[in-house]
């Protein structure tokens, strides 16, 4: 398999780590995800990962009702740090070299995000896991993925979800829903398709940074996306 991209940014939701559970981290699931990442890394692809925290805490979830929004968002950022450490540990056990960088300053646990160091780690073949979102409340980890991808010079953002692409309507509710193979940023925004939040989508559009939405639970899907095959939905300028 010949990769189409040299450097990618993989956006993993916290929910992706739950597997079939309702919260927390499934060891079996995280090991399967790491195996997919390792297979792509062996092709010589440089990989950055932005991870969410929705499996532990989400700022807009019912559990945050009545809570100050900024406080809730900071709690969500800390949840992403926990997920990043779990992902790094799974990579270590799989023999995959990785580094975690945090947008929040907690140096006893994780080194801070420094763009130059992140790029150097990528060039050395290490997987870089970006934790704590952007480090600011009111911004999602989708926006963090678009931002970090732009900063480190990734060629594409790969958004790993539970659904194998972007559909005309909810495929769980509409049997006639059709998957888009390709769609432009402007079309996605105009049709209010849930690709990413509007801030992230606009940033990717402005940076001419394509986004591919695919299912991380389809075996080999990550490799097929990196090879440029028709997997998931490609959102382009």
Give the full name of the CATH homologous superfamily.
Acetylglutamate kinase-like
State the total count of DSSP E strands.
Answer: 9
What are the secondary-structure elements, in order, as H or E?
EHEHEEHEHEEHHEHE
Overall mean pLDDT: 93
Please indicate the percent range of residues in DSSP E strands (runs of 2 or more): 15-25%
N/C terminus separation: 26 Å
Number of domains: 1
Class by SSE composition? alpha/beta
What share of residues is helical? 25-40%
| Tally of contiguous helical segments | 7
User: What is the 3D shape?
Assistant: globular
CATH fold naming = Carbamate kinase
CATH hierarchy class name? Alpha Beta
Radius of gyration: 17 Å
Q: List the uncertain runs.
A: none
Summary of the model, kept short:
The protein is an alpha/beta fold and 237 residues long.
Describe the fold and architecture.
Strands 4-3-5-2-1-6-8-9-7 form a 9-stranded mixed beta sheet, sandwiched between helices. The chain is 35% helix and 18% strand. It contains 7 helices and 9 strands, in the order βαβαββαβαββααβαβ. It is globular and about 50 Å long. The two termini are 26 Å apart. It has 237 residues and is of the alpha/beta class. Strand 1, helix 1 and strand 2 form a beta-alpha-beta unit.
């Amino acid at each position: 398999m010949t990769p189409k991209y040299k450097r990618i940014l993989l956006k993993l939701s916290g929910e992706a780590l739950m597997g079939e559970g309702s919260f927390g981290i499934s060891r079996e699931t995280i090991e399967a995800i790491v195996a997919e990442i390792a297979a792509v890394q062996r092709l010589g692809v440089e990989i950055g990962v932005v991870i969410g925290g929705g499996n532990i805490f989400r700022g807009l979830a019912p559990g945050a009702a009545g809570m100050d929004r900024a406080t809730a968002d900071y709690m969500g950022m800390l949840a992403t740090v926990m997920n990043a450490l779990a992902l790094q540990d799974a990579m270590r056990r799989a023999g995959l070299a990785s580094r975690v960088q945090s947008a929040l300053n907690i140096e006893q646990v994780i080194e801070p995000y420094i763009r130059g160091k992140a790029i150097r780690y990528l060039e050395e073949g290490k997987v870089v896991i970006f934790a704590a979102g952007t480090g600011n409340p009111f911004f999602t980890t989708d926006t963090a993925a678009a931002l970090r991808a732009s900063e480190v010079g990734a060629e594409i953002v790969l958004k790993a979800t539970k659904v194998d692409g972007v559909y005309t309507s909810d495929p769980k509710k509409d049997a006639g829903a059709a998957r888009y193979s390709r769609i432009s940023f402007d079309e996605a925004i105009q049709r209010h398709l849930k690709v990413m939040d509007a801030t992230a989508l606009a940033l990717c559009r402005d940076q001419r940074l394509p986004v591919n939405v695919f299912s991380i639970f389809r075996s080999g899907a990550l490799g097929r996306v990196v090879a440029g095959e028709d997997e998931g939905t490609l959102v382009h300028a």
